[in-house]
């Protein structure tokens, strides 16, 4: 199965950003707060309050007003909105400006559905336009009288044309979501979330003292459990009245650090029975805050013992004690993402943060050709979530559209450029009453590494949303983005940033193991899910966990081939140099051999002339000439772009390449390899023939790996065997004699010319001139091949 390269490639687009005001690529920061998105014009209608002034008809005094707003085929209403005690709603409705010519506002009596009055506004002449930072349009009272029913009402509202820059945009009820239940409209609104920063809590259980078992005739076998929130960890079992553990139990907590760690000592009486012999609880605020890489002091803590284990017959106070180190490790960065997709490396304490490096700005323009997981559903209620650091941004939900337009702009502070911005697009399942328990469905993700983004450029591209499954590579649509990174730091702070530590110093002074980092990352994801689920509107747990989902570690032949090709690309240049040198030795032609000897002779005996050539003006003139030729070649290659860059600083950068199909082995996909990659563990494949075929294929691959590993081990064992020969006295005597002869040659050849002659003779022998040529193996190589290895001992 071959993938279409053009279909899955990043395409360059040319939107009218910010109405094309100002430069496309400013050199000194953004021109406005919304210059990375296209301007969208909306008709805003703010319905604030209604007043009933009916005095003639007593029945008209009892009125439940409902406001209906109509523009073209779109209709919105306050029917399902909660009404205040003074008949107030204070709700903003937003309509697409191009959907009609006349805006109709109708006031009705809700129970009887009686029309009280109607107001029509012509869009072309009667509605003002407001562009921030202009002051907001003042609301007006509109008389809504009905002489037939004796209703005398007044409606307070305001109508104006605005854009997505307007302050009411995040709280507006858009016309495309008019069918959404009023209680669910909040789930369609854009929002920015700040996830609480995370911190490690280190509980080091050192030892116990004077522990008492429930069974007075038995030596206690105790382990310690510590619980913080929903996470419980325990130590190994240690026996004795004064057991020792010296074991770290590490938790993840979020700011503010207000939790409590509950510690219990469990006595293992036998294989099936256990009993608690002591408890202790400590608040996080009572622990030692470590703001530098260090260790907390070890202190003794009295344990609260159950009554059944207290010593009898002694009225004096007796307490078992537990020696522990309790600290909040604030000098670490808590990883919630995998290393490849990390967006933040800062420590918990702000005093250890590096200086601000720059600003990242993202304009989420829209999407095209979206496909959901449910093929029967023709439309999608989509929204985008962008995550960088602890700041999450969520766009509004565009209802019933496979090509939504958002045009929302967000920005982040950047402290490390070697990070990744993650954007995910999801199908909103929370906007209908019958979808209360449904989860939002992920459509796909786009990741942008910042180290590939050049500063002060605006990248306007359409990124494919790719989904790889057992059936192959599938395109779920395209996400249109405008990306810009602007440096804030200048001078030394900017140019020294690539050389500073990527992680806080504590990660290098007291590093955590990969196993610990993976376990703590799982804790961090759960805490983030819980914290963001408590916001309003909630960023659901399935969305957060999907955004923080790490790379799969399942076995994949496709990725194995990919990693081999990457490794081969890295060492290909070294292999090329080795092959060139080997070809000089092995060739029978005299020309390359004499060229090598000539170059060696010049560098050995004519170094004075080389020094004169380097320090002369001739070399400087040649370098300047080469620079001029290179610049002229670039200018003549693309004269239009050079002209724009010189006079307007306006050059369209090339699109960011986020996925290399050929590198990832996605240009020609083997479906069975994909099926094996996405198979569960243990395998859920029931066809024995397929399992046998996969097993035989893996055996063939591992056969080559086995032989390669065996050859490498054999050569390494022969090298070790050469050192073991030094244990024999005869070999040691010969080695000392050779060392003495070598020193004698060096001393005799200490004269500069003699040493150069010796080196030149060695080079002549090494390049194998015709009179030195011998196709038989060298003596040292013969000796090395005769050294023993453990391969002879294997059965």
What do you see in this structure?
The protein is α+β, with helices and mostly antiparallel strands and 795 residues long. It has four domains: 41-186, C2 domain (Immunoglobulin-like); 198-329, C2 domain (Immunoglobulin-like, Sandwich); 339-494 and 501-547, Immunoglobulin-like, CATH 2.60.40.150; 707-793, no CATH class. Helix content is 26%, strand content 28%. The strands form six sheets. Strands 1-28-29-22-25 form a five-stranded antiparallel β-sheet, covered by helices on one side. A five-stranded mixed β-sheet has the order 8-9-2-5-10, with no helix packed on it. Helix 3 (514-533) packs antiparallel against helix 4 (541-547). The protein is extended and about 125 Å long. The two termini are 44 Å apart.
List the helices and strands and how they pair.
Blueprint: E1 11-12, E2 41-52, E3 65-71, E4 74-77, E5 88-96, E6 102-109, E7 114-122, E8 140-146, E9 151-163, E10 173-174, E11 191-194, E12 198-209, E13 221-228, E14 231-234, E15 238-239, E16 244-254, E17 260-268, E18 274-283, E19 288-290, E20 299-302, E21 321-329, E22 358-368, E23 382-388, E24 391-394, E25 405-414, E26 420-427, E27 441-449, E28 458-469, E29 472-487, H1 492-495, H2 506-509, H3 514-533, H4 541-547, H5 557-586, H6 590-605, H7 607-615, H8 617-637, H9 639-647, H10 671-677, H11 688-724, H12 729-748, H13 752-766, H14 779-785
Parallel strand pairs: 5-10, 19-21
Antiparallel strand pairs: 1-28, 2-5, 2-9, 3-4, 3-6, 6-7, 8-9, 11-24, 12-16, 12-21, 13-14, 13-15, 13-17, 17-18, 20-21, 22-25, 22-29, 23-24, 23-26, 26-27, 28-29
Helix pairs in contact: 3-4, 6-13
């Amino acid at each position: 199965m071959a993938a279409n390269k053009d279909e899955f490639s990043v395409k360059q687009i040319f939107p009218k950003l910010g109405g094309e005001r100002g430069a496309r690529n400013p050199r000194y920061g953004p021109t406005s707060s919304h210059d990375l998105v296209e301007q969208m014009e909306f008709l805003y209608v703010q319905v604030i309050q209604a007043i009933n002034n009916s005095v003639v008809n007593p029945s008209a005094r009892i009125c439940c007003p409902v406001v209906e707003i109509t523009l073209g085929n779109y209709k919105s209403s306050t029917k399902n909105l909660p009404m205040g005690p003074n008949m107030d709603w204070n709700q903003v409705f937003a309509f697409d400006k191009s959907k009609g010519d006349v805006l109709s506002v109708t006031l009705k009596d809700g129970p009887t559905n009686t029309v009280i009055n109607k107001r029509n506004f012509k869009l072309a002449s009667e509605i003002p336009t407001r562009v921030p930072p202009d002051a907001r349009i003042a609301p007006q009272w509109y008389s809504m009288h009905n002489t037939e029913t004796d209703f005398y009402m007044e409606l307070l509202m305001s109508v104006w044309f605005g854009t997505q820059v307007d302050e009411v945009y995040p709280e507006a009820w858009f016309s495309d979501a008019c069918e959404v239940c009023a209680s669910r409209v909040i789930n369609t609104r854009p929002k920015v979330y700040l996830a609480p920063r995370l911190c490690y809590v280190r509980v080091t259980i050192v030892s116990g003292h004077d522990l008492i078992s429930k069974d007075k005739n038995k030596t206690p076998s105790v382990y310690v459990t510590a619980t913080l929130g929903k996470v419980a960890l325990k130590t190994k079992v240690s026996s004795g009245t004064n057991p020792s553990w010296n074991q770290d139990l590490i938790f993840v907590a979020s700011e503010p650090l207000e939790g409590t760690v509950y510690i219990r000592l469990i006595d293992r009486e036998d294989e099936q029975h256990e009993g608690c012999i002591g408890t202790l609880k400590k608040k996080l605020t009572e622990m030692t805050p470590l703001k530098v890489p260090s260790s907390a002091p070890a202190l003794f803590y009295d344990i609260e013992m159950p009554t059944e284990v207290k010593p009898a017959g002694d009225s004096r106070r007796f307490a078992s004690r537990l020696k522990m180190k309790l600290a909040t490790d604030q000098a670490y960065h808590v990883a919630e993402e995998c290393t490849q997709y990390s967006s933040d490396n800062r420590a918990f304490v702000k005093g250890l943060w590096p200086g601000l490096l720059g600003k990242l700005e993202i304009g989420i323009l829209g999407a095209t050709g979206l496909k959901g997981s449910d093929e029967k559903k023709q439309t999608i209620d989509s929204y985008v979530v962008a995550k960088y650091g602890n700041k999450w941004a969520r766009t509004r939900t565009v209802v019933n559209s496979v090509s939504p337009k958002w045009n929302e702009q967000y920005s982040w502070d950047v402290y490390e450029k070697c990070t990744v911005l993650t954007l995910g697009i999801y199908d909103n399942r929370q906007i209908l009453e019958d979808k209360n328990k449904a989860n939002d469905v992920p459509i796909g993700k786009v990741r942008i590494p910042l180290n590939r983004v050049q500063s002060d450029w605006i990248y306007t591209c359409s990124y494919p949303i790719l989904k790889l499954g057992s059936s192959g590579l599938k395109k779920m649509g395209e996400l249109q983005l405008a990306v810009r990174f602007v440096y804030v730091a200048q001078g030394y702070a900017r140019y020294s940033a690539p050389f500073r530590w990527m992680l806080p110093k504590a990660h290098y002074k007291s590093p955590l193991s990969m196993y610990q980092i993976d376990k703590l990352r799982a804790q961090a994801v759960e805490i983030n899910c819980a914290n963001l689920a408590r916001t309003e509107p909630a960023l659901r747990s399935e969305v957060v966990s999907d955004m923080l989902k790490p790379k799969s570690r399942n076995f994949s032949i496709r990725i194995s081939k990919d990693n081999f090709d990457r490794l081969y690309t890295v060492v290909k240049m070294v292999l090329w140099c080795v092959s060139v040198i080997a070809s000089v030795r092995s060739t029978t032609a005299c020309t390359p051999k004499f060229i090598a000897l000539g170059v060696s002779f010049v560098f050995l005996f004519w170094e004075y002339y080389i020094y004169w050539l380097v320090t002369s003006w001739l070399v400087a003139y040649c370098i300047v000439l080469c620079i001029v030729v290179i610049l002229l070649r670039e200018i003549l290659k693309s004269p239009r772009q050079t002209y724009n860059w010189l006079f307007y600083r306006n050059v369209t950068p090339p699109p960011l390449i986020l996925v290399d199909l050929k590198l990832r082995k996605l240009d020609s996909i083997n479906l069975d390899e994909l099926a094996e990659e996405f198979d569960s563990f243990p395998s859920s494949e029931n066809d024995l023939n397929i399992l046998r075929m996969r097993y035989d294929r893996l055996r063939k691959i591992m056969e080559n790996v086995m032989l390669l590993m065996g050859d490498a081990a054999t050569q390494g064992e022969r090298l070790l065997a050469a050192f073991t020969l030094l244990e024999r006295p005869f070999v040691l005597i010969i080695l000392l004699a050779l060392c003495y002869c070598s020193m004698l040659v060096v001393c005799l050849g200490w004269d500069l010319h003699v040493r150069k002659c010796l080196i030149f003779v060695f080079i002549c022998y090494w390049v194998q001139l015709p009179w030195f040529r011998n196709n038989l193996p060298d003596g040292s190589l013969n000796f090395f091949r005769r050294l023993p290895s453990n391969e002879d001992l294997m059965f």
